[in-house]
Amino acid sequence: MTRGLFVTKALLFCACLAPFVLLVLRALEIGGLSLGADPQAEVLKTCGMTGLNLVMLTLCVTPIRRSTGLNRLVALRRMLGLFAFFYLAVHFLVYIGLYIGFDWDTLVEDIAKRPYITVGFTALVLLVPLAVTSTNGWQRRLGRRWVKLHRLVYPIAILAVVHYWWQVKIDVSDPLLYVVLLAVLLGVRVAHWRSAARRRAGSIDPKAAVAPTYQRVEPP
């Protein structure tokens, strides 16, 4: 790892951790900070929104890399994804701990009967295998299957945005911004895949194609 990349990763780590540190300082009321009139709701919202923002930032890496040629950005994607999982896991733990008091029957009932909790819980469950297999070792063991597995980030992002939209009861302007951003991020990927498919089709001589040609599949 070059020194520049090390410094960049260190700065990114601090930036990703900052919302959690600030949340702890507010909970302890250090420096005149506080969580406001509804501490539980503030912790739940902060962790949820931070996790969602990090999921969106993770999806931004590939389009930015392709358009700028900054391939080093790929090295930052893993950290963004793991922090996204961390914040969304804390978001879930706050809900089951502070809101329903670890009442598992209530949890099962909420997952079954409340659509926004259903999609949010599904997104978190889908994130687990991505977090577990984020290491270089798992990437080597899974090979091409690793890329296919980590494309779960697309339905995860969709479910996370739907979860946010459905729990907002009145003003949906903020969730709408996430819908637009996600549509753009997925749209540029579809356009890239279609363009790549056309280039491959144009470069293959049908008379010479006696066996299937396997192309490298880019990660999410």
Please describe the structure with a list of short key phrases separated by commas or semicolons.
single chain, 220 residues, mainly alpha, Four Helix Bundle (Hemerythrin (Met), subunit A), 0% strand
Can you walk through the features of this model?
It is a single chain. The chain has 9 helices and no strands. By secondary structure, the chain is an all-alpha fold. The protein has one domain (3-198): Four Helix Bundle (Hemerythrin (Met), subunit A) (Up-down Bundle). Helix 1 (3-27) runs antiparallel to helix 2 and helix 2 (39-68) runs parallel beside helix 9 (173-203). The two termini are 22 Å apart. Mean pLDDT is 89; it is low at 208-217.
Write the layout of secondary structure elements.
Layout: H1 3-27, H2 39-68, H3 74-99, H4 104-113, H5 115-132, H6 136-142, H7 144-150, H8 153-167, H9 173-203
Helix pairs in contact: 1-2, 1-3, 2-3, 2-8, 2-9, 3-5, 4-5, 5-8, 6-7, 8-9
